[in-house]
Amino acid sequence: MDSSILIIVLSLAVLISYGFDLFSSRFKIPSVLLLLALGMLTRQATDYFSVRVPYLDTILPTLGTLGLILIVLEGGLDLELHGERLGVLRRTLLASLLSIIGGTLLMAGTLYLLLNDTFYHCLIAALPFSIISSAVANASVTNLSDGKQDFVVYESAFAGILGIMAYNFLLLSRDSVLGAVWFFARDTLVMALISLACCFLLLYLISRINHRIKFLPIISVLFLVYALAEINHLSSLLLILIFGLFLNNTELFIRGTLSRILKNDLFEKELEQLKNLTAEGAFVVRTFFFLIFGYIAVPSELVDTDALIVSALFVFIIIVWRWLTLRITYSSAARPLLWIAPRGLITILLYLNIPENLRLVGFREGIPMLVVVMSSLVMIGGAVRGQRLNNE
After folding, report:
1. Which residues touch 283 (CB under 8 Å, ≥6 apart)?
2. Is the per-residue pLDDT at 62 higher than 80?
3. Is the confidence at residue 385, as pLDDT, over 80?
């Protein structure tokens, strides 16, 4: 493909995605659905003109991982650990734990009854679908009260981290659960110590680097440490979350003389610049991830009867279990929150990363996209119904 045409295509993709984002914020239609639809339409156009786009299957997992890192960093940079927020922290942590554990068990049980494979394989297949998408959910709560917004933001941030840690634990427990507990606890402790050391080092670099290019090298260091930790099967996203929390709550960790050494007068302004850079990077990566995922989707897999039935069952389980979870963790009227349970990038990425020998036999490939679409449609329906009730 000619380089000029490629530049035009990439630029148009970002501009169209930005337009989708504006449209989504006004009409409450998740931009994920629009990107997936655009990807599928683009595939039809390239097939019609006999244009072949290579290497997409290789690019997609890498884009997903980059997007995951940036989304988790963005979430960590948004979380405040002040005393007045301890209540919502406890409730959202419990909500995310219950959502992942209960949702995974219920969906795994459904798959076990339908497909009659080992329950372990069913757990591996079901776990990605128990994790709420922070990017989609956070964009849908702008019209809710601050308390409900905070609940969704914190819940989705915790769910992403806990879900990925649970996924890694399941992979480790393939041979021995007790061995997995030991390795998981050890690796988590090691990763937490490495994360703290990286936090102090990166904060020192932020305060000392005077070059106009400051944050890209620091984010590159994060990516590097993440990749090295991932190669050694450590809880690498823990580093990203701790770094984000650390920077956004330095007053809790850095005091006295240490504050004068590690922070400068421009720190708050520079932190805001890092937040903006992270948000825009996550936006670009997410754009191309969902465009490519829509592009490589096989339409026949999306109209497969078995895939539609399983996807509908999954969404039903997600909503019913969310209702029970909110009854336990959210004391006031939680009806608007009930429908805000979309699945997105983490679900798709974890599913794509399931090792071939742990794949569930008979599980349809179209289910991940169908669950993403259906859960987003349920969220739209809930928002429309809530708006009507408010108008009445």
Report:
1. 17, 18, 21
2. yes
3. no
20, 148, 150, 152, 333 from 145: Cα distances, Å: 24, 5, 9, 11, 12
Report the sign of the C-alpha dihedral through residues 195, 201, 204, 206, in that order: negative
Q: Would you say 119 and 108 are in contact if contact means Cβ atoms under 8 Å apart? A: yes
* DSSP, residue by residue, 99-139: HHHHHHHHHHHHHHHHH---HHHHHHHHGGGGS--HHHHHH
Residue 374 neighbours by CB under 8 Å, 6+ apart: 311, 312, 315
For residue range 189-245, what is the model confidence (pLDDT) as tens digits? 888 888 888 888 877 777 777 777 777 888 888 888 888 877 776 667 778 888 888
Rounded distance between C-alpha atoms, residue 342 and residue 350, angstroms:
15
Q: What is the mean pLDDT of residues 272-295?
A: 90
Query: Do the Cβ atoms of 383 and 140 come closer than 8 Å?
Result: yes
Pair 340, 154: CB distance under 8 Å: no
For residue 309, pLDDT beyond 70? yes
pLDDT, tens digit, for every residue of 107-130? 999 999 999 889 999 999 999 999
Which residue intervals of the chain are DSSP H helices?
3-27, 31-48, 56-78, 86-115, 119-126, 134-139, 146-172, 177-208, 215-231, 236-248, 250-253, 256-262, 267-296, 299-302, 305-329, 335-338, 345-352, 367-391
User: pLDDT tens across 320-369, in order?
Assistant: 999 999 988 886 556 778 889 999 888 998 998 898 899 998 999 999 99
| CB of 377 closer than 8 Å to CB of 308 | no
> Which pLDDT value is given to residue 391?
52
User: Which position has the token pair 């909110």?
Assistant: 326
Quick one: which of 133, 127, 138, 120 has its CA closest to 100? Answer: 127
End-to-end CA distance of the chain: 55
Q: What is the mean pLDDT of the chain?
A: 84
DSSP code string of 58-74: HHHHHHHHHHHHHHHHH
Q: Are 99 and 132 in contact (CB under 8 A)?
A: yes
